[in-house]
Amino acid sequence: MKKWSIDEGNCSISYTLSVAGGRWKWLVLYKLSINKVMRYGEIKKGLPSITHKMLSQVLSELRDDDLIDRIDYAQIPPKVEYQLNERGKSLIPILTLMAEWGSENRP
Fold it and tell me: Which part of the chain is the HTH hxlR-type domain (predicted)?
């Protein structure tokens, strides 16, 4: 899937979409905003129709775009957790508005 171009439309919305565009990114961000810290399996369970490949890709892109942190614990069995970082938390007001709009306008 082609990622949004930062220069598309020459506006700040283009930048936002280039970082957090796509169906799954917003849903993962929303799940993390509600649950604070989640493991991969918990995220997958909360989004049953996402494939493992897509979830791995989305988590990687969100980390690359500096919206979430991945915490690796040096233990056996391995443990990895994901959480919003400060930059990711700055999207919570947008996520809240999206959720409210959806609740009010959902058929």
Answer: 11-107
On the question of pLDDT at 1 being above 50, the answer is no
Yes or no: say if 72 and 78 are a contact pair by the CB < 8 Å rule: yes
Structure tokens at 104: 């009010």
Contact criterion met (CB below 8 Å) for 83 and 71: yes
What's this model's pTM, rounded to 2 decimal places? 0.85
Q: How many domains does the chain have?
A: 1
Does residue 19 lie within any of the structural domains?
A: no
Give the tens place of pLDDT for each residue, 11-24.
Answer: 888 888 888 888 89
Q: Are 84 and 40 in contact (CB under 8 A)?
A: no
Tokens in use for 43?
Answer: 């995220």
